[in-house]
Amino acid sequence: MVTMLDVAKRAGVSKATVSRVLAGHNYVSKTVRDRVMSTVEEMGYRPNVHARSLATNRSDSIGLMVPNTLYNGPFFSELLFQVATLTEQLGSQLILADGKHNAEQEREAIQFLLDTRCDAVIVYPRYLSVEDIDALLPTISKPLVVLNRRLQHYPQYAVCADHYSDTFEAVSWLIGQGHREIAFIKGMENSATGQSRLAGYLSALEKHQIAVNDALILAGCWTPESGKIAATALLNRKVAFSAIVASNDDMAMGAANALHAQGINVPGDVSLLSFDNIPVASYFIPALTTVHVPVNEMVASALMQLTNMLDGQNVEALPLIRGKLMQRESVGKGPYYSG
Hints:
12 helices; 3 domains; alpha/beta; 339 residues; 434 Repressor (Amino-terminal Domain); Rossmann fold; six-stranded mixed β-sheet
């Protein structure tokens, strides 16, 4: 195996000079730097990353912990793409750790990233509660930011979309289109995002003095199949409705499938509104009216917080990030429209 000393001997410089060149120090002359890098390439030398990280206390890597319940779906693909792209722009490597199926495994995955000497960690929790994370943060020596969860004691370490306000405004807009009997398909049980969206839906009904009908609220778990099952159950209840709000695009498409199977037209008979704005949403027939969740902005804000912390700066809590309603073809005028 080629060592740094081998490179130094071949290039006619000291081992310390090779180390400085590889570390990117600018006080090595261009002539020497070019000779060292040419020798590195010629000999196929690969630096000992672990040894370098021990010496510099930096590994040029960012950790990401996500539970695998999120892997099977377009939202995770978008999240991973944005984290990988923006991490690369920072000149860092991305290391992914699987949080698996419960809070303890999420905690173990975070510890794995810390043991791997990641410079900083991004966490997208599913099972760790706000209280769990608040208790964990003081025990961690590396910068850590939580995505899509609001923290009570350490809000500066959280970046979150404003799911409640986005839902409130989207449902209020739907009411303005003449819909009053509005069904709602919930997200996965105990999901913070799902709970916020349900709360936004209920608040919009209250604001517009529309009584809550429990028969119009159905369980879901983010998947197209759960949306199909929920819409089928809704139809079997024989309760009047002119619109369905699904807590994500996947469930909306499953609901549309169930409606189509019963000869119900979207948006002619029933309007459909959802969340996330996954890439296929605009190509679905009819194109989904959906709330765009700003994943790119969330990830960029998280990495900005981490970068500032790595630079020794104090960081302040960031405001919730607002989404945007994408008005497309799946929503039509309701029976109470008077515009």
